[in-house]
Amino acid sequence: MRIKEIELDNFKSFGKHTLVPLLDGFTTISGPNGSGKSNIIDSLLFALGLSSTRSMRAERLPDLLNNLSGKNEARVTVRFLNNDNETLEVSRRIRVKENSYTSTYWLNGKTATLTEIHEELMKYNVSPTGFNVIMQGDVTGIVTMSATERRKIIDELA
Amino acid sequence: MRIKEIELDNFKSFGKHTLVPLLDGFTTISGPNGSGKSNIIDSLLFALGLSSTRSMRAERLPDLLNNLSGKNEARVTVRFLNNDNETLEVSRRIRVKENSYTSTYWLNGKTATLTEIHEELMKYNVSPTGFNVIMQGDVTGIVTMSATERRKIIDELA
Amino acid sequence: KRQEFMLAFDQINQNFQDIFAELSHGHGKLELEHPEDPFAGGLVIRAQPRDKKMQRIEALSGGEKSLTALSFVFAFQRFAPAPFYAFDEVDMMLDGSNAERLARMVKSQSATAQFVAVSLRRPMIENADHAIGVSLRADGYSRVVGIREIHIPDEEQKPEPQPV
Amino acid sequence: KRQEFMLAFDQINQNFQDIFAELSHGHGKLELEHPEDPFAGGLVIRAQPRDKKMQRIEALSGGEKSLTALSFVFAFQRFAPAPFYAFDEVDMMLDGSNAERLARMVKSQSATAQFVAVSLRRPMIENADHAIGVSLRADGYSRVVGIREIHIPDEEQKPEPQPV
Ligand SMILES: Nc1ncnc2c1ncn2[C@@H]1O[C@H](COP(=O)(O)OP(=O)(O)OP(=O)(O)O)[C@@H](O)[C@H]1O
Ligand SMILES: Nc1ncnc2c1ncn2[C@@H]1O[C@H](COP(=O)(O)OP(=O)(O)OP(=O)(O)O)[C@@H](O)[C@H]1O
Ligand SMILES: [Mg+2]
Ligand SMILES: [Mg+2]
Fold first, then answer.
1. D138/C51 CB distance under 8 A
2. DSSP letter string over A101-151?
């Protein structure tokens, strides 16, 4: 199982619809400061429901909409491919209206709750505590976290 | 005014008495991971009373004694040179006995309190909040601190 | 419950010892604060860099903490592999030789999981199979290009991306 | 009291605008939450990187935050200079061109204050007047050497120190 592609639509600095295809193995993402590298990482956290809004450097979900394009929604879709060439697709959209906004998840094309998304991803050991995503500046957090927090990470597995 | 030299005696990884001479202008400190670069920065924080024990990555002051040499004290002396070639010397020593330890400061060779050290250094705009020392990983803290904390930094000046 | 935990813990501990030795040439291990009743205590990391005495983990240097943390992540991964790992500049504090050692380990771990690593570091880019370049265009929008030919940064400068 | 604060604030604000523009080629300024009664509110940093709209400061990238923070430090320094500044790897998130811009600014600021910067980055080492090398000997103790001839790291590798 691997990520086949990440589709960003109006998400943070990706105001233009962007497809990020990913191959198997080891891929690096490079570019100048402020170009959007960490925003791609945020898009994974966003779509897969892996972290809080603050961890994506936003105060409220509407902050995640690109602030140049004038559009009123942002969407990210992550498509996985398993070893039998079947696709698993997780998508999330924030839509802003006058004074409110909605956050909607889809799993394989059907609307789903965050709990359903988490249960599906947990089958593949993808979870908020599984270190699947390490954010910029956070790597040493594993060393500085409390002993109890660290043990709980293993509790999740067993 | 500038730092003329930093003298480390049994401080953290500097178990051997070490003199770090510094010239005017712009100096870089380089070396492999774990060689002792940040420990030199910690020695400045320690001697000048600029930060908490935790900020020097120690739980209690005795942790700052080199753990290989078997000696029971650690000392750091910072010597400044002003434009009239006069020396200002600040020194601090931790001495460990059976179940306790003492921390002593000296200003120009006479024992002094931390308050006296702070008052002297403040004349030169050297203080815990003056950004004289930025620790590893801390630079973005200036951006993430609260607006009130940031304003108080200017209060200190005025 | 406790038996499943101990099975996981022992395996991850063994993985950690092997990986930490390979990444840092030092000795490391995991310990339970309460081995008789794991859930009554936490999980402690013991790390001893080469040529040094066992040290409080908080006293380690920035680079040493990074390698210790990543050893834990890889130890975890070997026990409970996930399809992907996405790392954002985890090599930022590493010196040249540690960055190289880490990049080789990511390369070897990528046989069993997809790794996507944001990095400006030459060793990481050199060891990768594929590279993606991100840039901000004059219109203010981010764009992505796949890179066929990897231009290695002279010193951390962005590689010149060639559109796929 | 308030008058002294406003004098300091206005001067530091002007410094910040100049320095931020030089370091980032963008626009930045400082604002008081309560201009009429400064002590009733905080001090906010507004930063607009080149080609972008004014952004919440928390949303800035790692490199952009570093440059913004350092602009504030230099702005402060120009107003109330101290004899020395000691920076530990403040360039760790900067790409090649920003690291170069920062190194040149440290060089120019070092005309009025002594700067000691721990850094593994080539631009910083190239722009320095002097270099100190630190190493851990086989006996486990740290040693320091002054470097006469600076060997520039090929990629973040430690320069080969030559004893003074
Ligand atoms: N909602 C938004 N609309 C438009 N731009 C945004 C939005 N949110 C964040 N940005 C911009 O995205 C940029 C940050 O991008 P990102 O953090 O991905 O950079 P990066 O490539 O990781 O850089 P670095 O190497 O410095 O870490 C910032 O300049 C920020 O202003
Ligand atoms: N009291 C002590 N006695 C002996 N060694 C110590 C003591 N305290 C810390 N150390 C050691 O000092 C080393 C850390 O040194 P330091 O943080 O200065 O490294 P560094 O050169 O800044 O490395 P990096 O580039 O990774 O940041 C650690 O390996 C730690 O074990
Ligand atoms: Mg980033
Ligand atoms: Mg360090």
1. yes
2. EEEEEEETTEEE-HHHHHHHHHTTT--TTTTSEE-TT-TTHHHHS-HHHHH
Calculate mean pLDDT across residues A69-92: 96
What confidence score (pLDDT) does residue C160 get? 35
β pairing state of A101-107 and A87-96? antiparallel
Question: What is residue C156's predicted lDDT score, i.e. its pLDDT?
Answer: 47
Rounded CA separation D10/A138 (Å): 36
Alpha carbon of B130: minimum distance to chain D alpha carbons (Å): 8
Q: Do B33 and C98 touch (CB under 8 A)?
A: yes
Facing residue for C83 by CB, picked from A69, A126, A146: A126
What's the confidence (pLDDT) of residue B134?
A: 97
User: Of C6, C122, C13, which Cα lies nearest the Cα of C71?
Assistant: C13
Q: Which of B123, B15, B122 is nearest to B64 (CA)?
A: B15
- The band of D50, judged by pLDDT with boundaries at 50, 70 and 90, is confident
H/E run at residue B20: strand B18-21
Continuous segment of H or E residues that includes residue D163:
none
Q: Which residue has the tokens 């920062």?
A: D102
> Which of A35, C136, B123, A33 lies closest to D70 in space, CA to CA?
A33
When pLDDT is cut at 50, 70 and 90, the band that residue D158 belongs to is very low
Task: Measure A51 CA to nearest chain B CA, in Å.
Answer: 19
Beta-sheet strands, E only, within D57-128: 84-88, 114-118
User: Rounded to whole angstroms, how far apart are CA atoms A105 and A92?
Assistant: 4
Cβ atoms of residues D66 and B139 within 8 Å: yes
Query: Residue written as tokens 């965050």?
Result: A114
Residue D54, exposed/middle/buried by CB under 10 A (0-12, 13-18, 19+)? Answer: middle
Question: Of chain D residues 64-93, which have a CB less than 8 A from chain A?
Answer: 64, 67, 93
The fraction of chain C above a pLDDT of 70, given in percent, is: 89
Position in ligand 2 atom list of the atom nearest CA B65: 1
As a three-state string, the secondary structure of A38-81 is HHHHHHHHHHCCCCCCHHHCCCCHHHHECCCCCCCEEEEEEEEE
